[in-house]
Design goal:
It is built from nine helices and no strands. It has 158 residues and is mainly alpha-helical. The chain folds into three domains: 8-52; 59-102; 106-154. Helix 2 (26-35) packs antiparallel against helix 3 (40-52). The protein is elongated and about 65 Å long.
């Protein structure tokens, strides 16, 4: 049962509690305050205070950190951008992340795909059905088809 948050001090304390677990975007904090039935002016004031104190990262910084974390967890750019959209990140930050993945993080993405292929692959030659299953798995993880096929062609025994 959500408790109501009526004043600035309680809203700020709740935001600190949320930020204790992990960094959050401005939109995430506002959403959580809204779920606690916090009035809009109090939400805005609490989030503005946290932004002035540099306790909430900018959308671009948050998106970059989240993308690196998710990439290390084996997720691709499509899945990461969908996740960031859910978290209220703006279009400009999403475009920056996509550009980052196509340039600076290209080798990290390829390495992640290769690691996932090695982990999922059974010994022996990949027949058509097993290759299809592996491609579907990687696409569900959010990787781009072109990258997946390039890495699969480079891997031995494919």
């Amino acid at each position: 049962m959500p408790t109501n948050i009526a004043d600035f001090e309680h809203a700020l304390r709740y935001c600190f509690l949320l930020l204790k677990y992990r960094k959050r975007s401005e939109a995430e904090l506002k959403k959580r305050l809204r779920l606690k039935k916090c009035p809009l002016p109090v939400q805005d004031k609490a989030v503005a205070y946290l932004k002035e104190s540099n306790l909430i990262p900018t959308d671009t910084d948050f998106a970059r950190e989240w993308a690196e974390y998710k990439l290390s967890g084996g997720y691709g750019i499509n899945r990461i951008t969908a996740d960031l959209c859910k978290r209220g990140i703006g279009r400009q930050a999403l475009d920056d992340i996509k550009t980052l993945f196509k340039t600076e993080k290209k080798e990290d993405v390829r390495r992640t795909i290769a690691d996932l292929i090695a982990k999922k692959r059974r010994p022996g030659e990949l027949d058509y059905a097993r290759k299809q299953k592996l491609v579907r798995f990687l696409l569900q993880r959010g990787f781009l088809l072109g990258e997946v096929l390039e890495v699969m062609d480079e891997s031995p025994g494919s």
